[in-house]
TrEMBL record:
This is Uncharacterized protein. It comes from Haloferula helveola.
Amino acid sequence: MKPLTAKQAAEWCRNLGVPAEPSSGPSREILADHFGLPEDSTGRVAVAAERLAQFDGASRILIWITGWGVWPSVDRSDDFREIRAELGEPRWLDEIPAHLASKADFDYLCRMVKCAVSSLWDLYLVGPKGRKILHFSHDEWGGSRGIPTMPNKAQHPTA
């Protein structure tokens, strides 16, 4: 997995035609499908795993954490640090919020996503060519583009 700064992640997205800003990640306006997330961690992780499967086999996947630590009672920062340490990345999310994963990194990517979603962190996944995009919000909703609609579809709250 290649670690990326927010600026590098935004540039990678924009090179694929995905509007993105270093301060906030990809634009939420490009998400075509919105869905609710269960209140419990186990349910959130199950929803994330189901949608994450749509990226299996992709040559490159960007994971970009854009918000963390919103809900201290469910935060799993230590677990996330351990995953990153296994990858040789000692820096924290404020410095390196994104990783570019290859096919060989898919298991690590899944662990990162599940940890982040169970912690109610904001994150984006962007597939190769920018056709598939997946977002999870700390406000217990998600959105996607280029991924088939799945059963728990719901409208996200208005901002």
